[in-house]
TrEMBL record:
Key word Thylakoid present: no
Region called Disordered, residue ranges: 28-48
Keyword field: Signal
InterPro entries xrefs: Quino_amine_DH_bsu
Signal peptide boundaries: 1-22
Name the record gives this protein: Lipoprotein
Amino acid sequence: MKRVFSLALAALLLAGCTAAPADGNERSTAVTAETSTAQEAETTAAAPSPAAALRPLWLGDEKQYYMNEMVTGELIRYQVADLINHVTEVPCDVEGCAHDSESCPAVFRRGECDRVFVLDDDTLVAFTNNQFSETEDSQVVLLDRNCQNRRVAATIPNSSFLSLGYDVASVPYTDGQYLYCSGWQDGYGNQAAMFRVDLETGESSNLLESAPAQGLQFLGALDNQFVFSESDLTYPEPTGDLMADALTAPTGTITHWLFDPYTGEWKAFQTYTSDDGSLDRMYSAIVDGQYYQVDREAGSISVVDPVTGEAKLITDQYPTDQLQGSFAIQGTVQGWLLFYESPMVHLETGEIREKPNLPDNYWNGSAHQPNIYLNLGDILLVDCRYEPYTRTIIGTDGTPYTVDVEHEYLGLISTEDFLNGVPNYTEVGEYII
Ligand SMILES: [Zn+2]
């Protein structure tokens, strides 16, 4: 988990923001199935209804994986891992180019093209301007698959996007007709927004203008509905004892809402409250388009249907001692639900099995199992190797100093090898951040 958090933090730093958004997925949960108080929205109901499933956009596909790095404080450079030819390169064919200035086609000013997602075989999309102080408007930008031919598809005034690309809560979505990206209106961290962009016309709107609550946090999508978390929690008054305060749980209620972007309808989906203990007892997460619910005390894991609210039990035999602390779902691979450092569960049979470990990666003084960067069905892109090196940095006073860090390398591995702990990697190059 440490590695995951450090990645997210690094990305946030790269994006230039100061505070990580609260992670609602980690926060607990319980079964109060379907207390549907459907609430008709007025302003968003006008959209046509393609009713296609919402599809998350990722930082890569079976052909390429896109990364970028800071060149200077203001410039970023793209690097692309070619997953077919197994090399990582700067997407630039200018002869003799040092790839360090805006004359390089792979170099962008920050805020112009912060992170690209694969829209289709020919097109990338970037939701730019993640809360940089020098700009207020945000742009949706399309590019060719080689990171070139940048064109602005839409401009959304006084807004910023959340588009880090780490999980289902930080990626944009499409239904084939519209693009969707969560973010904020009126400044970073201010008013929660879900922007819908019509690529044909460039028109955009904030679908949360008619939301039933303020401060909603985006969690992901289930079929053709978005899920948002409303948090009404009270934290205990500080006692002065930092350790004791940190361990004292908040009280109150978390509500997970389903939002249909086509009809504008809001529906309370799940509620977790300290009144019945479910706030602490339950964990929920959206993974690969499914809503999983874990009862830490009962050792049960279920998947909840967004339409009927019905919870289908996967197992009630999961060892409860594994469900404490920083327990979290990692993903689904070949019908198995994977957890960080805990046994995996088969989604159909409910079988619980220790996943044989791959060799540990060592990063920043601690060991971790490979993380999944891209899940391509039969193949995964993971961090497969780290090499220590000493990096020289020029301090603000011009004095150089060194830090010991690691180069991280990405590799492809079959899901079968991954599940069996067989480190049969095909390296594709260095991970760039
Ligand atoms: Zn170049």
